[in-house]
Design goal:
three-stranded antiparallel sheet; 42% helix; metal ion binding; 8 strands; three-stranded mixed sheet; 8 helices; 14% strand; heme; alpha+beta; 169 residues
Length: 169
């Protein structure tokens, strides 16, 4: 199944309409698949233990700062160009996030035109969508302060394999 087909499926789920509010309890780790964590709903989440972040959260920080910060501001705090994702993710579930990042979004209202470009074809983004999500989720629920995480877990073999497969290496 292609990335765009998966994205279309997620967009359909997102369009079903739901009220969503993320918090520390909802973001709690329920499962660990070799260093990749999920919550009780099966959505990607983060793990921070004594100031050490999991690899995927650290990777999300790195990807955010290479691809997203120009519009969304340092640490997802927002700018005059785009909203504060550290706030937005409190009300956006995983499917909505994936759909918006992959397909883009337009909010065109009088004097307040905002356009999020589609990143569904950008491997530097779509290969790391879960990483971006867990980083921003950790920021949104208040478990990760601003700035570069001081310590992180080592990169697991599963992350190396996924990266090589997605990036074509």
């Amino acid at each position: 199944m292609t990335f765009l087909a998966v994205t279309a499926g997620l967009a359909l789920l997102a369009s079903q309409g739901s009220t969503y509010a993320d918090d520390k309890a909802a973001a709690a780790v329920a499962a660990d698949d070799n260093g990749k964590y999920t919550d009780k709903e099966g959505s990607p989440t983060f793990k921070i233990n004594d100031g050490t972040v999991d690899w995927y959260t650290y990777s999300g920080y790195r990807r955010f700062n290479s691809e997203c910060h120009v519009c969304h501001g340092a640490d997802g705090a927002g700018s005059s160009f785009a909203p504060a994702l550290a706030e937005s993710l409190k009300n956006i579930n995983y499917a909505d996030f994936m759909s918006i990042v992959a397909a883009g979004r337009k909010n065109l209202s009088a004097g307040n035109e905002k356009v999020m470009p589609a990143f569904g074809e950008n491997k530097n983004v779509y290969c790391y969508m879960d990483d971006l999500y867990v980083y921003l989720r950790a920021r949104a629920v208040g478990d990760l302060p601003r700035g570069r995480p001081a310590k992180h877990e080592d990169k697991p073999q599963a992350a190396k394999d996924a990266e090589a497969s997605c990036m074509g290496g």
